[in-house]
Amino acid sequence: MFRRMYITVASLLIVSTGLLLVLVGLAVYHELTNDVARDAEQAMAEAVPAVERALTESVYRDGLGPPVRDDLGNTIFYYAVGPAAVAHSPHAPVPFSVVHGEAVLKHFVTFTYDNEPYRLYTVVVPDPTMAPALIQTSYQGSVDGLSARGLLATGALKAAVRGIAGSPALTPTRSTVVLYMYCLITQERSMLTHTLHLMEFIGGAGFLLAIAGDLVLARRLVQPAFQTWAAYQEAVLELSHELQTPIATASAMLANRDVPEEAANEIRRELDRASKMISDMLYLSKLRSGLVDDPPEPVAVSDLTLEIAERYQPIARAEGIELRGQAEEGLYVYTNQGEWERLVSTLLKNVIDHAKRPSTAVWSLYRQGQWVVLTVENDVAPTAGERPRAPERGVGLQIVERLVHRMRGRLRIDADEDRFFVELHVPLLRPH
User: Fold this and answer.
1) H or E stretch including 16?
2) What residue ranges carry the coiled-coil annotation (predicted)?
3) 306-330 residue pLDDT tens
4) pLDDT in tens, 174-194
5) What's the rounded mean pLDDT across residues 24-52?
6) In the structure, what pLDDT confidence band is assigned to residue 78 with cuts at 50, 70 and 90?
7) DSSP 137-195
8) How far, in Å, CA of 79 to CA of 178, rounded?
C-alpha cells in the first residue's frame, strides 16, 4: 500500500515538475523568438529610408541600386517597382515573381525559397526619383526575369505587374513606388535552434536533478502516513493479543467451574466466535495494509472449491442446512491457495452462521467469458422477537471483498430480509 502511495506521490511530483519545466521553457523560447523577430522587423522597417536614399542616389545603371544594410548588419535585398521601371539590389537571390506572390502590404511575411528562410516587408513609398531618374529600356525576358534584369519598358512593366499582382494595392501609381524588402534570416534561425538545443540540454539536466529531489520529497511526505499506519498496526496487534487473554481465561474458568453444560457450550461458542473475529480483524488489517507476503501463482480453483465445500457440508448438515453446489472443471485463477481457501471458507461459514434452519444453500463455480464466477445463495434466518432485517456485512465479508480486490475482480452482494446472494468475478487464467 505504501509502496503504491510513494510511487503515486513521486509520479505526481515528477510529472508536475516536468510539465512546469516544459511550460516555462516554451514560454521563454516563445518570448525569445518574438523578441528576435520583433527586433529584426523593426530594423527592416527602419531601413526603408535608407533604401529610398539608395534609389535616389543611384544612377540605376543596368537597373541596379546600391547595397543596403539594416541596423543589425543584415543585407537588405529589394525590388522597387515604380510607375516607369523596376530597380533591384545588386544581388537578388529570390525571383520577383516569388517575392511578389508572398507579399502582403505593410506586413512582415516569412517564406522559404531554395531551402533558405527569408523575411519580407512590403510598403508603398513616394517615388524618390519622380520619373527623370528612372530610365526606360526595352522589356527583356519573362516576369521571372525581373530578378536578373534591371529595367523594363513602361508598358511591359505595367502589364507584367498587373499579370502577377492579385491586389490593386501592390500596383504602383504615377507618384508611388512599391518597395519589396527582404533579407535572409538563416543566422537568426540558427541562433534560435542553437538556443532551443541548449535549453533542452539544460532543462533535461535540471529535470534529472528535479527527479532526485522529488523522490526524496515524496519519501518525506509518505513517511508520516507510514509511521501512523505502523502505530495503528502495532496497536491492533497488541489489542488482539490482549483480547485473546481474557478469552482464554474465560475458557479455562468454564472448565474449572460448575457451570451447566448447556450454558457452558453457549459460552464456549461465543468465545470461539470472538476469538475467530479477532483473527479475522488481524487478517483484514494485513490485507488492507498490503503486507500479505504470499506471492500469487496459478491455482486450480475447481478442485480446491469442491474440497472446501465437502468439509463444510457435515457442519452445515448438523445445523439443519443442506449445502449443495457444483464446480466446472479446469478453472484456474492467479492467486494463492491460502487466499482462495480463505475466500470460499468465509462465504460458506457466513452461510452456516446466517442461513435459515432448515433450508438449502446453493453455491456454483463456473466460467463466464474471461471470468471465473463464484455464487453463493441462501435463505436468511429470521430474528426471533425482532423485525426481520437483512444480514450486515461483517468482518468476514470485508475480507472477501478485499481478497476479490487483490485478485483484480469484482464483488456483488444482494441482501434483503429473505435472501442473501453473493456473486464474485475474478479473471480466468489459462494454464500453460
Assistant:
1) helix 2-46
2) none
3) 999 999 999 999 989 999 999 999 9
4) 778 888 889 989 888 999 999
5) 89
6) confident
7) ----S-GGGGGT-----HHHHHHHHHHH-S-GGGS--SSEEEEEEEEE-HHHHHHHHHH
8) 8
Residue with cell 471470468: 371
Contact 122, 171 (CB under 8 A): no
Name the grid cell of 394: 461483517
Query: Residue 189 carries which side chain, given as an amino acid letter?
Result: R
Q: Which residue has the cell 505502523?
A: 230
Indicate the angle between helix axes 2-46 and 48-57, nearest 10 degrees: 30
- Burial class for 111, CB neighbours closer than 10 Å (0-12, 13-18, 19+): middle
**β-strand partners of 379:** 419
Rounded to two decimals, the pTM is 0.53
Cell numbers linked to 401: 471483498
- Helices and strands per DSSP (H, E), number in the chain: 9, 13
Task: Name the strand (E) or helix (H) holding 87.
Answer: strand 86-88
Query: Residue for cell digits 495494509?
Result: 289
The residue behind cell 543596368 is: 62
Rounded Cα gap, residues 206 and 89, in angstroms: 48
Of the candidates 96, 122, 99, the residue with the CA atom closest to the CA atom of residue 112: 99
- Label residues 157-183 b or e (16+ Cβ within 10 Å = b): bbebbeebbeeeebbbeeeebbbbbbb
Residues 6+ apart with CB under 8 A from 96: 79, 86, 88, 143, 144, 146, 147, 164, 180
Question: CA 198 to CA 193: how far, in whole Å?
Answer: 9
